Amino acid sequence: MTLHPTIETVTRRIRERSAPSRAAYLELIAAYGRRERGMDRLGCANIAHSVAGLPVNDKLRIVVERAPHIGIVNAYNDMLSAHAPLQHYPDLIKDEAHRLGATAQVAGGVPAMCDGVTQGTPAMDLSLFSRDVIAMATAVSLSHDVFDGALMLGVCDKIVPGLLIGALHFGHLPTVFVPAGPMTSGLSNNAKAKVREQAAQGLVGRAELLDAEMAAYHAPGTCTFYGTANSNQMLLEAMGLHVPGTAFVNPGQPLRHELTREAARTVLGRAGPQPAPCPPIGQVVDERAIVNAMVALLATGGSTNHLIHWVAVARSAGIVIDWQDFSALSEVVPLLARVYPNGSADVNQFQAAGGPGYVIRELLDAGLMHEDVLTVRPGGIREYTQLPEGDENHRLHWTPIGASADDSVLRPASDPFSATGGLKVLTGNLGRSVIKVSAVPEDRHVIEAPARVFDSQAALLEAFHSGSLDGDVVCVVRWQGPRANGMPELHKLTPPLAVLQGKGYRVALVTDGRMSGASGKVPAAIHLVPEALDGGPIAKVRDGDRIRLDSVAGTLQVLIDAAEWEARQPAQISRDQAIDSAHGLGRELFAGFRRNAMGAEEGACTWV
């Protein structure tokens, strides 16, 4: 299939823009790749330290037999349901490595926080920056420099981008990502959202709300909505960094365990009917792989958080992308999936309908993804269009997916839910922002209403509960950018705004903060740049200013006289708020991150 001209144009533009930084990156990883293996290069004391805790047989394999040695970077903790299954993965991996005459060692652990636990609390101010902490922890883990390949064990929101950023800074190593899969379906996401809205109105109490939440989040595995965590898994499949089809197999199944073993075989170059060496991750992640990930995100209505994270991921490989690239792709990439919040299905139903493999096949066949890319497997990206299965002896094989098993969840590229993707860039006199339109009702794609300005999400919630927000309104929440307070998700605002919308009011949100990957049905212009703390226009908005959010035209405007707008001075963050955003629950430790953070469109990177 001939590549769509827009895909080719965007890819070429990225390649040309990135030429100097990509060339420097490839030269660097090539130099590291040419060195002797770590165990032959390091001094005797260094080697002795690195193997001192290993069994004698492993020491002999590594030092005498010069066997391949895998480094495992694990984001396990049992605070996150999605990461709890990772506890025993290193044992499976080590056992499989031994079967193949190799060895494996846990190189290190990385932190992993749950935004579901911290939503609406001061701890959310650490969330975005935890991505860069994870990247640093990955680098520390691999810095012992004795490994011939690496396995990245992680699933959730900031964890996968952080692991990927860290791994790309060791781009000379073959690297495979290993997920844990989603929890089985519990209370439906729609039912859960309804109870939240009832609670916001005081129609049900804490006991009823807790019962609903516990029924929704009920078991080990990733949350079942298509938020940032599950979008991560879709993008890794589209980039060829997983064992094919491994994203959405539930934890605890024999197939899940065998796929984890297959990850060890893959990184060692022992997978498939015709094994071949696993290429270094820095070669796999090129501009074509990045575009493939962007296309997969748009085609599935994935998380807006990736308009920040994948900018940072690309930068780690010497590749420069921006929101205009996403916008251009969104104009030609059809929406193929309806998964909550842009549909009623959960990810288990998405998987049953055909899952990532169906999406990738449809995009490849339509010329909307690059097929001439490297992956961690010898069969290339076409391997990712098949479904993994295990026989009675748990041996893996892959089968064609066929047609969608549920066209209310997945549709072919020839008959999509929408001709364009699920994300849109907005520009105007308020700056640049993004909106997830795939979950917003069509009659809400354009909102024009007077502004109410808030300096915190708590102030907005207080206004809602007082009844003063009843009516058409554009809620403006500022001082929520990376440099102000770490750019927390404002997901707690979703239920009250949904209640107002449900009453028939024209409602929208405008903010320099983030919304959760699970948010959707209320129009929200988010990630606004420049942020208020940098003197962004959002700091000029006053109560009563009329704002027009037009996701059809791609504009976000304050409708006042241009000369008056130009002359208006931006508000300043209050001393009390600045102090409150910087102290308590460890936020003092992140002062350097806030000072160094780049803007949202530059990936909110703190390390460039």
UniProtKB/TrEMBL annotation:
Cofactor: [4Fe-4S] cluster
Residue ranges annotated for the Dihydroxy-acid/6-phosphogluconate dehydratase N-terminal domain, each copy included: 68-381
Source species, domain of life: Bacteria
GO biological process, one term: D-gluconate metabolic process
E.C. number: 4.2.1.12
GO MF, one example: metal ion binding
PROSITE patterns documented for this protein: ILVD_EDD_1 (PS00886), ILVD_EDD_2 (PS00887)
UniProt enzyme class: lyase
Function: Catalyzes the dehydration of 6-phospho-D-gluconate to 2-dehydro-3-deoxy-6-phospho-D-gluconate.
Protein name per UniProt: Phosphogluconate dehydratase
